[in-house]
Design a protein that fits this description.
By secondary structure, this protein is an alpha+beta fold. It has two domains: about 170 residues, ABC-type transport auxiliary lipoprotein component (Rossmann fold), CATH 3.40.50.10610; about 90 residues, FlgT, C-terminal domain (Thrombin, subunit H, Beta Barrel), CATH 2.40.10.410. The protein is about 25% helix and about 40% strand. It contains five helices and 15 strands. The strands form three sheets. It has a seven-stranded antiparallel sheet, with no helix packed on it. Helix 2 crosses helix 5. About 10% of the residues have low confidence.
Length: about 290
Amino acid sequence: MKSIKKFLSIMLVLMVALPMAAQGERTIKRKVAIGRFSNETQYAKGMFYDKENDPMRKQALDILSSKLAASEKFILLEREDLDILVSEAGEGMNKIGADYIILGSITEFGRKTEGEQKVFSSTKTQTVEAGVSIRLVEASTGLIIYSDEAKGYAETSSKQTMGIGGSAGYDATLSDKAISAALSQLVENIINKCMDKPWKSYILSVEEDTYIISGGTSQGLAAGDKFTVYKKGKVVKNPQTGINVELPGTKTGEITILSSFGDTPDTELSFCSYEGEALDAENLTNYYIMDK
């Protein structure tokens, strides 16, 4: 009898602990918009070159998107007018609807073919080198929080002996491989920079003591999740740089997710309850929500 009671006690502890552990491991996805990815090299740019349909630019954009999606830590947003919004001061950034913006460019690209001819054999090697530069911008402030560049290489070889063996023609996949190799060196740092910063959201409206915030199921929010509400700190100007800096906010209370709705990451919202100091419902922009 005692052993049965002990077993039931252990099971009860596990049933309580496992959901808590699962919540601790769950990642709140960041919203990322991949903006301009340009080709700054002169490779394959002829008289009829079309900047908008540059194949290398599209290659890099697709590869970066795939690598970020594979991490399962991001919601990737498509913004056809992102370049225009980024160029607009202040208000343009807020219209993007992303936590971070990634801007990139292909800075170097080269392809060479080398061969070695011997009496009975010949070897042909194709090598591609690509250089990629990345900037990670925090959408809420417009500040660059990470900037770096990397180079990637890819090659293929063929060998013939007495006229027998493989023949290496033009290998278009080497471009993909070289760009992918360069981006692989940067993606981990992009992920770390984004995830190191707290997840942030905002109170959009208050309806009969129910607080509506941006974000929902696709980001990883679930009923029962609790987050801290802060009142924005004072904005001061740094005389040395001329940049306005927002001081740390003050904690006012805590919200709890009740339910979420919305069809897309752009339209997802969550209903919440709130406990803490009274908020100024007429000036909700003075508050923000964080998970840390």
